[in-house]
Amino acid sequence: MTQTSHGHFLDSMQLPPGTTRFWLIRHALVDAAARQRLYGAMDVDLCAESLALQRPYYEAIARRLPQDAAWFVSPLTRTLETARAIFAAGYGERPVLVEPRMIEQHMGEWHDLPHQELPARLRQRPHGFWSTSATERPPGGESMLDVCARVSHALDDMAEERPGQDSIIVSHGGAIRAALAHALHIHPDTALRFSIQNLSLTILERIDGLWRVVTVNELPSAVTPSATR
Asked: Which residues cross the membrane (predicted)?
């Protein structure tokens, strides 16, 4: 079966080469103690037990990803450690670049706050699927609107710098939702309705200046080897 290009439809099971494509991976599960608090852009440890138990998931991710891609992580250790776990699971070592704009939402003075203490600090009604509304800016921090602005600039810049190539970005739930808001031209409050689980894969493409979404929250237990390797 041949791959046709009418309307850039995907007529094959394989993603065609030569497309500006971003493979966004949410980092692995963080330590249980950290999950009890609002960690946002804090540098917290991954859960060592999950790292050991989820080795098959990392192997599945390693098979799924294109081999000729450039790798990027946020400045937080948990994204680099997730990338290293994928490398060790069969992908192989690669150079890794840090993209600061793909970091998680900065919660400012609310960092390290126990979750149950957050509601008393809020000035707006929280989002049903996020700690705050998209327009709430923590003191000394940033709102999800701010996150969307920086992530949008990052993706556009990276797409211009690496046209027709694959880029793998290990990032965060908030930043990946921001990327979806950018690709779909939707308000961050709407993008926060997407579920972005740990180790999930979201694929975005930019074609002729337009963004499209290939997959969202694809979990490694369901993935198959990619023909783009």
From this structure: none
Helix runs in 87-199, H state only: 144-161, 173-184, 188-191
Task: Look up residue 95 and give its two tokens.
Answer: 């150079």
CA distances, 166 to each of 15, 21, 119, 214 (Å): 11, 5, 41, 13
Cβ count near 175 (within 10 Å)? 28
Burial state string for 32-47 with b = 16 or more CB within 10 A and e = fewer than 16:
eebeebbbbbbebebb
What are the backbone angles phi and psi of residue 10, rounded to the nearest 5°?
-95, 100
User: In angstroms, how far apart are the furthest CA atoms of the chain?
Assistant: 59
How big is the CA angle at 153 (ends 147 and 156), to the nearest 5 degrees? 135
The whole-angstrom separation of Cα 50 and Cα 32 is: 10
Helix (H) or strand (E) holding 83: helix 77-86
| CATH number for domain 17-222, candidates 3.40.1280.10, 3.40.50.1240, 2.60.40.1180, 3.30.505.10 | 3.40.50.1240
Q: Which two tokens stand for residue 62?
A: 């390693």
**Tokens (6 digits) for 65:** 């990803």
Chunk the chain into consecutive blocks of 10 residues (it has 229) and report each block's average pLDDT, rounded to whole numbers: 56 84 98 96 97 95 97 98 98 98 98 97 94 97 98 98 98 98 97 98 97 97 48
Whole-angstrom distance, CA of residue 83 vs CA of residue 90: 12
